[in-house]
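Internal ticket - ligand job 336, nicotinamide-adenine-dinucleotide:
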Amino acid sequence: MSSNSNPNPLAKARIAVLGYGSQGRAHALNLRDSGLDVVIGLRPNGPTWHKAKAEGFTVLEPGEAVKGADLVAVLTPDMVQPTLYRESIEPNIKPGAALLFAHGFNVHFGQIVPRKDIDVILVAPKGPGALVRTEYERGRGVPCIWAVYQDVTGHAEATTKGYADGIGGGRAMIIKTDFKEETETDLFGEQAVLCGGASELVIAGFETLTEAGYQPEIAYYEVMHELKLIVDLFYEGGLTKMLQFVSETAQYGDYVSGPRVIDAGVKARMKDVLRDIQDGTFARNWTEEYKAGLPNYKKLKQADLDHPIEKVGAKLRAQMPWLQPQSPAEPLKKAG
Ligand code: NAD
Ligand code: MG
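stdout (structure tokens):
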């Protein structure tokens, strides 16, 4: 499924990456290592300005980076993008340039209405920025989904695939989507399953065991630490591999007790969550929360950080130094 076009259609393009956080840093480093011309756009002396400079990039104010760029990758937090677009991108982006997002939120929910004389495209890696970088360094890539929202040049698709190749996605797999599907599925995944669902499942399991009098250390290993082993099996071989590697007793318990916990009520509420995403309720609430200075976000985040599982977890993880991220993985030798 890789486009594997050679040479990259962006070979002669100047790419401005706005933001040098999780995705921005990974994309910028990978694009540069793919031989492409990259400059970084950041607020002067913002938190990542020095990091990008220290890593050898030309760092400009966002408006200056956008001027003269053939492709502008918008990799700042979603909530700052509408102002960034109005102030730095809209007045400066060249006609016929490409505006690229890694998440369709602002375009799909109408927070950014792109100029009509530019291509508008999306490349969303299905993994966090750190993995986008380490997989690239190993000669591999993270699968990406891609979309074209607006094609004024007639080569928006080639540009999009060129970018996906440049960040390493083409080495793994690229799948076509549209802004609506990417936005809605991404929000649903992180809310219902990956971030929201998984953390609430773990917390409920931890509370159930500790309230029944079991040691918090044992509860921690049981419901948080060991989850990684199961998720790794999912990742490598789905339910099939997980079932191959756990005991018959664990399998029987899975079959009879799993559906008692995650029952039809859970699925009905997942559908409620999806409806709020699709009809714009979530986007409106999140935008209002952000504009109000994040009062609920801060309170809810603190409650997670203060949960007893975090106290016992910090203590146990301090005794397992091997869990801390390794220095960047040894690049694997590429075949051929
Ligand atoms: P982040 O919070 O890690 O990045 C923040 C970067 O933006 C920093 O360099 C910061 O200095 C800069 N920044 C903040 N405000 C700015 C401003 N006003 N002007 C210029 N620069 C500014 O962001 P992220 O998590 O990498 O997300 C970037 C985009 O990628 C978002 O659209 C997000 O939805 C998408 N995405 C993220 C992930 C992920 O794993 N984090 C995965 C897929 C897609
Ligand atoms: Mg997301």
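Auto-summary: The radius of gyration is 22 Å. DSSP finds 17 helices and eight strands in the chain.
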